[in-house]
Amino acid sequence: MKRKVMLYIILTALVVVGGGIGGYFWYEGQNYLTTDDSRLAGDIYKVMPRITGKVTSLQVSEGDHVLADQIIGQQDNNNLPTSSLDQAALRSPIEGTVIKTLVKAGEVSSPGQTVAMVVDTNKLYVSANVEETEIHKVKEGEVVEINLDNFPGKVLLGKVQEISKATASTFSLLPATNTSGNFTKVTQRIPIKISIDDNQGLELSPGISTSIKIHLKGN
């Protein structure tokens, strides 16, 4: 008799625990969407020459803060008329942080060639990819929890700002079509852009891996 009672108690406990676990995952699936296919990104601005000439100086290094229209380098202006001397100045288009320099003093640079890249680290956002079978759940304005791989335990808040109208593979250099006669269906991913409400004073950089949790509304 006691054995039957114990067995009944154990089975009941297993059902309750199993139901609780199942209920938890059902609730999570209905109210949240998570993915670790995400990373920090930013609008990168290129510093480009306005004339062809030798770079006589580059006055910044990667990681330096620059102001909008600040001169960060200079090209040889010996053969320029006085009225055009400013054409040899290399200027930053925005206030931000230099994330890459691509020339050295002594090299020749021309219009259309990038000499440096600048990004405003205060305006970084999260670029994430959501599976096409799940994207219908996501709406602009939904709250997002953002976990940063390089700051364990830190959670930033943001909002879904944009949902792309095309899959990520649409912009790939490799074609998505298969002409070999064999076809394997692959779930496509839709890019979304997530704004960051407050970076909490953290030193963030483009490319840092993140994981996100979207708080779904009305699904």
UniProtKB/TrEMBL annotation:
Keywords, ordered alphabetically: Membrane, Transmembrane, Transmembrane helix
Compartments, record wording: Membrane
Bilayer topology: Single-pass membrane protein
Transmembrane segments: 7-27
Domain Multidrug resistance protein MdtA-like barrel-sandwich hybrid, residue spans: 46-121
Residue intervals of the p-hydroxybenzoic acid efflux pump subunit AaeA-like beta-barrel domain: 124-215
Main location: membrane
Family to which the UniProt record says this protein belongs: Belongs to the membrane fusion protein (MFP) (TC 8.A.1) family.
Listed name of the protein: Efflux RND transporter periplasmic adaptor subunit
Species of origin: Paenibacillus chondroitinus
